[in-house]
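Email to the structure team, subject: Phosphoenolpyruvate-protein phosphotransferase model.

Hi all, the expression group asked for a predicted structure before they design truncation constructs. Nothing fancy, just the tokens so they can compare against earlier work. One-line instruction: predict Phosphoenolpyruvate-protein phosphotransferase, return tokens.
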Amino acid sequence: KLQLLQEQKGKESITADGKKVHVYANIGSVSDVDFALDNDADGIGLFRSEFLYLGREDFPTEEEQYQAYREVLERMNGKKVVIRTLDIGADKQADYFNLPEEENPALGYRAIRICLRQPDIFKTQLRALLRAAVHGCLAVMYPMITSADEIRRIQKIVNEVKEELDREHAAYQVPEQGIMIETPAAALISDRLAPLVEFFSIGTNDLTQYTLAIDRRSEILDEFYNPHHEAVLRMIRMVMDNAHKAGIWAGICGELAADVTLTEEFVRMGADELSVAPSSVLKVRKEIRMAHALMDISSKYDL
Ligand code: PEP
Ligand code: MG
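Reply from the structure team: attached below.
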């Protein structure tokens, strides 16, 4: 079986009837790039940037971040790298952030909420990202979005960062920018959000958690945590449709993207990208190459 998967290396991620579906890798550190390359990923679809902030005493500097992002971009050699901005809080804590103790941290002060409330932290990361963008094919995505207003606030901060870099005559480029769709709010207003961004990446881990009202880390609730729930799959379908109506691409980067029992379903829904653990890249590519994109979608998830 492993032998058969090795045969997928060097092949295009394209369906039996000719639709290109990028198979990207999820990584959590610079060294993970090795695994992505070993498994012949078409790019990086989710680089969890938290690793730069965790397990240390103080914030990483702009220079440290710039070097890390640049290294990943250079090693991916022109292939797309989607870096997600800081998604700290909830289960990922770092003492020096001095985050408040909360009853329900998953519903609390985390991710983009911290970045918007403490723009200095956000700006340092954005400066590093815009500067690194000249070294490869970078896309940036923002986590835990729930509203159009958040996107406008992000855009305002990105513009301030651009002005700063212009004044300093620094070398930079504005990367492609997208959002994670991982809250039911974002999924339900994805028609309004799509014109404001360049892509959607669906985070099925959190989308399942928030849709089913089930803590994704709770072992007691394991039997109820069902990412195949029709509510989740309908939202995925809806998000894909709204992305394509607005002319942007949409992918999936949560665990569900690697579930090969759904690959053909995702392809028929119009998924442009599936981003999975490096060890699942070849398995998903194999499934895509056997799938037919253009058949009628089963009406199961029609709205
Ligand atoms: C998700 O929520 O599906 C996701 C990809 O992000 P994370 O697992 O890092 O929350
Ligand atoms: Mg998430």
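The longest helix spans residues 148-167. The CA atoms of residues 69 and 168 lie 21 Å apart. Ping us if the truncation boundaries need rechecking.
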